[in-house]
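It is worth pausing here to work through a concrete case rather than discussing structure prediction in the abstract. The textbook approach is simple: state the sequence, then state the predicted structure, then interpret. We follow exactly that order.
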Amino acid sequence: MFPLQGKAGEEVETFIGPSVKVEGKFYSQGRVVVAGAVSGSLKTESDLKVGKEAKLNATVEARSATIAGEVRGNIKIKERLELEASAKIIGDVETKTISMAEGAILQGKCIMMK
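Step two, the predicted structure:
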């Protein structure tokens, strides 16, 4: 499971648990952790963590993100995107920096911006 505190003590504002399914447009200004399912769009002005068992069929926007689960949809990250070994991304990615662990899957375009 995930700690409910982020970097430098930043607390998680929203936790979407393993049994939760969210459909539609989801917007937050705080840190979001997803362990369940999201369909539609997910946007946060802060950081996003997608757990290993999480499944997103959504467009995603965040300041930074760590992804261990599956995302089917385009991803736009302002700062840093980290893909863990279990990550599976099917869609285009736009980010400033990216880190991919061995075993991570990315099927789509990757655009690096300044």
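Step three, interpretation. The first strand starts at residue 12 and ends at 16. The mean pLDDT is 92.
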